[in-house]
Amino acid sequence: MQLGQQHFVLSVGTGLNAKAIEGTSREGKRRFGPLAYVWSVLKTVTGLQPHSFTIIADGQKLRVKAADVLLANVSTLMRPFRWGPHIAPDDGRIDICVMRAKNVVDILGVARDIIVPEGPSHERNLIYWHAHHSVLVFAEEPLLVQGDGELLGEMPLEVILVPGAVQILVPEEDS
Questions:
Q1: pTM for the whole thing?
Q2: 39 occurs within a structural domain
Q3: Does residue 37 lie within any of the structural domains?
Q4: Is residue 172 part of a domain?
Q5: Domain with 10 in it
Q6: For residue 166, how far is the Cα from the chain centroid?
Q7: pLDDT tens digits, residue range 69-95?
Q8: In degrees, to the nearest 5, what angle opens at C-alpha 85 toward C-alphas 51 and 60?
Q9: Which of 53, 60, 148, 167 is in the most buried spot, having the most CB atoms within 10 Å?
């Protein structure tokens, strides 16, 4: 995925995911690893305010109030959190994950869904959409944007899919 002149492999997002990254210190990451992000999310959701987003994916427009918009190329955030089994880095598309959570209870339901995706669902708070070429995301107010876990600045964000940009080498199978 390309945003401006930079390329990203994992994800680009805004809303709760960028706030969690902003609220996670180097010391916290060093001491607690991925759990530092979970703590940051918990601190952030206490004052959760959904934002009004306009998302344009391959020319199709969606307006939504949401806590988070993540453009994903891989499904696993960090174990055990997984957005969805339908997200793959080699499928030729950008997967758009929209979290419409309005409060802490909604966030806990979404967290349960991404930890145990096979169980009863709170999908009313998750929208999955995809694009094969580009995604443009606007918000009514300036919001932080992150790419592969690094803060990049503020909205809007325009991501272009770059097929075949990364080659992955894997060992040969034993015969």
A1: 0.81
A2: no
A3: no
A4: no
A5: 2-14+50-160
A6: 20
A7: 999 988 766 556 667 767 888 888 999
A8: 45
A9: 53
